[in-house]
Specification:
Length: about 160
């Protein structure tokens, strides 16, 4: 059985003249991801691997999440291929994961996350908001074989 928690990066700042990949989080985004970390801690599996997009806003979200609930930030593996807005690319990256990994926590971007959870989960979500948390579980034992799974939990900042 495989499980994946997808967390969309927190709200980022569009006011600074920087390239997309360099955008940083807003104060509200920082506040929201800290709240999400505390609220979702009880849903985290005992053992997990963390991967994150290398975009500033995603990596900052992953670091804040981990620091808030005392997860060693050195557990985060940053992958440039997760800097994608395309669910097919996201799916490809997830399906390449080592099968020794049972539980994955992934920090990434929309529209890839929303489209991925709608393709693989059993609950339709109009839009996974910034700092949104979606937990999916699959019956398959191989990442390359995952298909329609079960949406175990969703937690969004507006609900807190």
């Amino acid at each position: 059985m495989k499980s994946i928690i997808l967390i969309r990066h927190a709200k980022s700042n569009w006011n600074k003249p920087v390239i997309d990949k360099e955008r940083i989080l807003t104060d509200k985004g920082i506040e929201n991801i800290k709240k999400i970390a505390i609220k979702t801690k009880k849903y985290l599996p005992e053992n997990f691997t963390i991967i994150s997009s290398t975009a500033n806003r995603a990596s900052q979200t992953a670091l804040l999440f981990c620091n808030q609930i005392l997860i060693d930030e050195n557990k985060i593996e940053f992958k440039d291929n997760l800097y994608t807005f395309d669910e097919n690319q996201l799916e490809k990256e997830i399906k390449k994961c080592d099968n020794n990994i049972e539980n994955l926590i992934l920090f990434g971007h929309n529209e890839a996350i929303t489209n991925f959870v709608n393709k693989f989960g059993d609950k339709y979500i109009i839009n996974v908001p910034t700092a949104g948390f979606v937990y999916l579980q699959f019956e398959q034992n191989s990442w390359k074989d995952i298909n329609k799974g079960k949406t175990i939990q969703t937690i969004f900042p507006k609900e807190i």
